[in-house]
Predict the 3D structure of the following.
Amino acid sequence: MALIEVDKQTCTRCGACAAVCPGGFFIFRKGRYPRPIPAIQEFCLRCGHCVAVCPADSLDHREIPLAQCPPIEPSLKVTFEQFAQLARSRRSIRAYKDKKVPREEITRLIDVARGAPTGHNAQTVRWLVFDDRGEISRLSEIGADWMRWSVENKKGMVQFLEGVLKRQETGYDEFLRSAPAIVVAYAEKGNPIAFYDCVIALTYLELAAGTAGLGCCWAGLLQSAATGFPPMMEVLAIPEGHVPCGCMMLGYPRYGYRRSPRRQPARIAWRP
Ligand SMILES: Cc1cc2nc3c(=O)[nH]c(=O)nc-3n(C[C@H](O)[C@H](O)[C@H](O)COP(=O)(O)O)c2cc1C
Ligand code: SF4
Ligand code: SF4
């Protein structure tokens, strides 16, 4: 089949496919059938908007087949209030149960995070997961070495790192909070948009975790060590040509929260 095919038997000539296409890759005139531009194969983002928006299931895409685009289930629609509570009740979890997170559960969360937007629909996000207690302890030990090195060499937030290191040395794992799993999102080096893609995908994962009885906390210290401390880079072993863009702790929260803490009012500038 051609990259895009329109079934003229069912197409209502509504023009929605042409209107939502990010690059305007359809030629559409009122009352006529939409036609992909001749260079569609080269330019198409493979975003699937044309397939997903068609009210008559009349448009198929060779690489995003209609049959593989599940319908949106109206009964599962989330209300604003439900989403607002999910977003506001999300907390950075720093006390985890000593309980392994099944790999199927982590896979389920990553599968949701796959739905996050990516610049130019490049879908560049890659995932690395640590779920072995010994391996995670090793990351924390290397994290402590990184903090010692940073303090000695006066790199970064020295005073802050001194405090964390002091507590880490008492046996409390402030570096990774003894989380039973660590999720790292990484992407190609030198692609500035890929960094945002990873951060957005991890944000999706964190929100999804909250609906599955799990909790997360951004591992900013690990992210810093992972990008500037060779022993940490070695143990992460991110494939050549790629860089870690965000690290997340994951596990079952030891405590539930009863309230959403107050946050500052939004500072919005309206123009004009
Ligand atoms: C960091 C980032 C930057 C983006 N910039 C643009 C943009 O400038 N213009 C645009 O039309 N879409 C932009 N997008 C949207 C992507 O093209 C879109 O997420 C992708 O095509 C997948 O479609 P979806 O979000 O509907 O799944 C951006 C997305 C991300 C994550
Ligand atoms: S898949 Fe996206 S970019 Fe390609 S033709 Fe359809 S809407 Fe346009
Ligand atoms: S969205 Fe579907 S029905 Fe509407 S013009 Fe495009 S192919 Fe035809």
